Amino acid sequence: MSQTFLGVEPTDDPHRFRLPVTNRICVGPPGNVFLFGGAGLAAGVLAAERATGRGIVWASAQFLSYAREGQSLDVGVSVVQAGRNVSQVGVTLAESGNTILTVNAALGDRPGQPEAQWTPTPDMPPPDECAPWSLWPKQDGGASMNDRLEVRMLPGRYGAVPRDGTPSVDGRMRMWMRATDDVTVDAAMLAIFADYVPSAVAAAFGRPGGGNSIDNNLRVLRVVATRWVLCDVVIDAAARGFAHGDVRLFAEDGTLMGVGSQSMIVRFVEDQRRT
Description:
5 helices, globular, alpha+beta, about 40% strand, two-stranded antiparallel ribbon, about 15% helix
C-alpha cells in the first residue's frame, strides 16, 4: 500500500503523521538530494484520507521549501469543514516549524450519481510491447524514488528519442509507470505518478532537463484495480523561465482515474553544469 511505499508513520493523534525523508522518496544529484514533490503531495493525500475517512476528490500542493534526506516531517491535517458529502481540509508538512509544503484538499463521495468518461484512452501499446526507459540517472545512496518506479515507452516516440535539441511537435510524452514493489494503486500513488510532468519538459524541448515544481494539482475520478498506470503528459507552453503542463492517468483497462497539472521552473542539464 502507498503508506508503506512512502513510509508515512501514524501518531497517537489521528490528525497527525510523520514522514521520515529517506533516500527512497528523494530525487536529485549527489550532494543535493531532496524530497520528491509528488511524495509530499502523496503524503498529504494519504493523511487527509486517513484523518477524514473519505476519498480524495481534489488536492493541490504549494511548495514553499525543500526537505532534505535525513529530516523528518510533521504532517498535520486540519479539517476546515466537514459536510454531509464533502470535507474541506488543509494539510501542512513541516520540519522543526519550517513549512515545506501545504496541501488543500476536498474529500467525499456522492453515491448513486451517474458516471461517464468522455476522454478517450490514448493510442498506446500495452506495457509489454514498450521498452524500459530511465527518466533520470541513478542516484547515490541506494534505491531512490526513480529507482522504485518502472517506466516503459514506445521507442522512437513520446520521449524515448535522443535529446538533439529538436523541439517536440506536440509537447506530449506518454509512458506506462508502476512501482517496482507490488504496491496497490490508490490516490496517493496517482499523486506520485502525476509529478512526472516535469520529465516531459526534456521531450518537449528535445534537451536533457526537467523542472522544479511550484505547485502540484491532482483531481481523482475513481481508482480501479491496475498494475500499470498510463501517464499521458502534455507540456502546454513555456515562457519566462516557467512551463505549464498536465497529465491524464489511465488504468490498463482504459479507465481515466485522475487528472494532474502543475507549473514548474524549467531546468536544463547544460545550464546546471555551467552554474
